[in-house]
Design brief:
Distance between the termini: 22 Å
Number of helices: 3
Shape: globular
CATH topology of the largest domain: GMP Synthetase, Chain A, domain 3
Number of strands: 9
Strand order of the largest sheet: 1-4-5-6-2-3
CATH superfamily of the largest domain: Fe-S cluster assembly (FSCA)
Strand content: 25-35%
Mean pLDDT: 91
Order of helices and strands: EEEEEEHEEHEH
């Protein structure tokens, strides 16, 4: 993205890529932004020897506007199950693998989505997703990001995003739009 060196303005939590371990970057750490998609940032941190994911809620630590993590669906009609499912898919398209500049939907990582009505008029959402590589330590972080974004939808009470490995992911699951973004189409 920018590649320019930035110095963190405060301590912030980051997730190591691809290992998935949480670390604390202290104020004054030199970083470079390599990717900014879906409200989070992928940072190159030379002092720690690698890439790290910074949540959008901590973007102010790198001089960017922090992402407010509340629902923005007040102007969207979610009165039908189909409309709600469309909004869920829209939210899933804002989730990215921090190493790949294509959202998890267009990467073909979402294997299933089920919306169940609850007694309170809201819904529970179950999502089955996979990863491009089974050993990727970012799986829980990506699944958590998807779950949080789905649960921001006003008509959703709860969401459960589970990682599954069958069938194994292959590049043929990438959408045509995703292939274009990756220069494959």
């Amino acid at each position: 993205m920018s590649g320019d060196e930035i110095t963190t303005t405060r301590d912030c939590e980051v997730v190591e890529i691809p290992g998935g371990q949480t670390h604390n970057l202290v104020k004054g750490t030199a970083v470079s932004i390599t990717q900014s998609l879906g409200g989070s940032y992928t940072l190159l941190v030379p002092a720690h020897g690698g890439l790290f994911r910074l949540s959008g809620r901590d973007a102010d630590a790198i001089g960017k506007e922090a992402v407010e993590e509340v629902s923005n669906d007040d102007d969207i009609d979610l009165s039908t199950k189909e409309q709600l499912e469309n909004e869920i898919w829209t939210q899933l398209k804002t989730c990215f693998d921090p190493e790949i500049p294509v959202n998890i939907v267009d990467l073909g990582l979402i294997y299933g989505l089920k919306v169940s009505s609850l007694d309170d008029g809201k819904s529970h959402v179950d999502v089955q997703m996979t990863l491009t590589a089974q050993g990727c330590g970012m799986g829980e972080s990506i699944a958590s990001d998807a779950q949080e974004k789905i649960q921001r939808i006003t008509k959703v009470s709860t969401a459960d995003v589970k990682l599954v490995w069958e069938p194994p992911w292959t590049p043929d699951k990438i959408s045509e739009e995703g292939k274009v973004m990756l220069g494959m189409g």
